[in-house]
What does this fold into?
Amino acid sequence: MASSTMSARCPRCAAHLVEIHLDQAGRAMVMRSCSTCDSRWWRRDGEDVAFSSILDTVSSTKKVAAARS
Ligand SMILES: [Zn+2]
It folds into this structure.
């Protein structure tokens, strides 16, 4: 078993992606970034997510609170 992580390849330029693992509010977040073409992807709990949807999740509580008033 190799100890090093086999990183994924960029779908745009086929360069190796850098993976950064985070733990955000108990959820496993993985950020994959390509330094060659400056692309970035996020995965949450093993599912691909757009970074904008993460921001929507964060700001949704404010929207709900505003809609009730
Ligand atoms: Zn790339």
